[in-house]
From TrEMBL:
Name of the protein in question: DoxX family protein
Taxonomic path: Bacteria, Bacillati, Actinomycetota, Actinomycetes, Mycobacteriales
Recorded superkingdom: Bacteria
Major subcellular location class: membrane
Keyword match GTP-binding: no
GO cellular component, one term: membrane
Organism: Mycolicibacterium pulveris
């Protein structure tokens, strides 16, 4: 839930700043880009900090190789994507890349929701995980399409 709160509050704060004259966030797509960046910094850092890192490794579906490496790579991609969202010339590409990354990582969330003994930090019902995912994908789509 903290991830959703981070996205929403960061977006609203950025949009308020835009209303107060900060040109960098003078539109909803640019404010949402800031919110997404904050969210992906939060989730990206979590890929490197225990116990969350350990829990993320545990929810990588067993058919995938090198779970620790996959968690590291996705964490780096999230952090790079967050930076890309904040730089207007790369914003659209970052939003599209993060959209795809969200899609690619979703099976791990499905796997975690179905695990009989999922790590406590990863226990969210599948319907809630899916709703969050739709929100994140929608935000990335707004940013990606807003820059066109």
């Amino acid at each position: 839930m903290i991830v959703v709160v981070t996205l929403v509050l960061s977006t609203l704060a950025a949009r308020l700043a835009g209303r107060l004259g900060v040109g960098f966030v003078d539109s909803w797509p640019s404010a949402i880009a800031v919110g997404l960046a904050a969210m992906f910094v939060l989730t990206g850092v979590a890929h490197f900090v225990n116990p969350l890192r350990r829990d993320m490794i545990a929810i990588v579906p067993p058919r995938l190789p090198a779970p620790a490496l996959l968690v590291t790579v996705t964490g780096v991609l999230e952090l790079v994507g967050a930076a890309g969202l904040l730089y207007p010339p790369t914003r659209v590409a970052a939003a599209v890349g993060l959209f795809v990354l969200l899609l690619v990582m979703f099976p791990a969330n499905v796997y975690a929701a179905r695990m009989p003994n999922a790590p406590k930090s990863m226990t969210t019902r599948l319907d809630l995980r899916t709703a969050e995912q739709v929100l994140f994908l929608g935000a990335a789509a707004v940013v990606g399409l807003g820059g066109i």
